[in-house]
Amino acid sequence: GERAPNAAWQAEVDGLIAGWFTHFPTDAVNAGKHEFDGQLPDFSMDGQHKAIDWLHGERDAIAAFTDDKLDGRQRFERDYVLAVIDGKLFWMEDSGFASNNPAYYAGDISPSIYLTRPYAPLHERMAAVVKYEDNLPAAIAQIRANLHAPLPATYVDYGIGVFGGLADFFAGDVPKAFASVDDKALQDRFKASNDKAIQATRGLSDWLKSIKPQATQDFALGPDKFARMLYATERVNIPLDRLKAAGEADLA
């Protein structure tokens, strides 16, 4: 009976990858699935809860493939993907970062792949940036709605750097990168979407600056959450006191 469970496992793997790319389209773009170019995740709390529920469902389905149903390679795949899901769930569900840490959004918001990876001719990547910038103001509005002041001072400073930096990047570097594209209609569309992207990111940076006077030093995860993070993201389950002692011995 080795064939049927393997077919079931392969179907689960294919479903997980397809679903992951739908929920997390920036991961799809980074994986070379350029039909997802310009798309951003649904950052609304409702959208995030849907993704979390989906991840839990996938986790249960994958964990149901016990050792007797899989060969050695598939057992490794199962354990690996459970670790990936647990890491994603920690940041989305346990960390609290969705509502207090602008850094949580920084990776997904970055447009660098379109500018730094020559996966397509420049005009195609410019069209992808236009789509990305068209989607950006709604995403920034979702992020702003999720963040509840007061926030830790270090998180505020990081957010000002990220979103203010993006606004400067859109104003200065991005137009230069596409200046050689000889397509007036595309350049006009780019100008309009780029202006709105500058406005949105600058607006979020300005809001973060405005809440800086009330910022806290309340950034610590605390021992319980920190221990959960180590297991969820690294599969490290050494007690914290032993980990701390080992780290200090290493430092010494």
Distance between the termini: 56 Å
Low-pLDDT residue spans: none
Instruction: Please tell me the overall pLDDT.
Output: 96
Enumerate how many helices there are, as a single number: 12
The H/E string reads HHHHHHHHHHHH
Largest sheet descriptor: none
Helix proportion: over 70%
Give the strand content. under 5%
Envelope shape: globular
Rg from Cα: 21 Å
Q: Which structural class is indicated by helix and strand composition?
A: mainly alpha
Please count the beta strands (DSSP E, at least 2 residues each).
0
Characterize the structure shown.
The chain is mainly alpha-helical and 252 residues long. It has helices at residues 3-23, 25-30, 45-63, 72-94, 97-100, 103-109, 112-116, 122-146, 153-177, 184-211, 223-234, 240-251. Helix 3 (45-63) packs antiparallel against helix 4 (72-94). It is globular and about 60 Å long.
Question: Which structural traits does this protein have?
Answer:
single chain; 252 residues; mainly alpha; globular
Please outline the helices and strands.
Elements: H1 3-23, H2 25-30, H3 45-63, H4 72-94, H5 97-100, H6 103-109, H7 112-116, H8 122-146, H9 153-177, H10 184-211, H11 223-234, H12 240-251
Helix pairs in contact: 1-3, 3-4, 4-11, 8-10, 9-10
Question: What's a concise summary of this model?
Answer:
The protein has 252 residues and is an all-alpha fold. The chain is 74% helix and 0% strand.
